[in-house]
Amino acid sequence: MMKTKVRMVYWKSEKFWVGKLIEYPDIMTQGETLKKLEENMKDAYILMIMDDVPADHKIKDLIVTV
User: Fold this and answer.
1) CA within 20 to 30 Å of 34's CA: 10, 27, 43, 50, which one?
2) Strand partners for 21
């Protein structure tokens, strides 16, 4: 297991703590407490870096209408 250090910018909104990673600004999440925000951010980071994707994965383009 590898450890990676990332920096999080965070602030308190009306109801939640909100944060995003400086190195990966697309990764943003929230939590009811600062501790929960940190836990959620770690989970979001792990999901976003695709650490659990097997080497024999496939890629498919998707069209999204917004």
Assistant:
1) 50
2) 8
Can you give the residue ranges of every domain in the chain? 1-66
What is the share, in percent, of the chain residues with pLDDT greater than 90?
Answer: 62
* pLDDT 10s digits, 42-60: 999 988 887 667 788 888 8
* Nearest to 30, CA basis, from 7, 49, 14: 14
B/e letters for 32-49, b = 16+ CB within 10 Å, e = fewer, are eeeeebbebbeebbeeee
Structure tokens that stand for 40 in this block: 């959620």
Domain boundaries 1-66, corresponding CATH code: 3.30.160.250
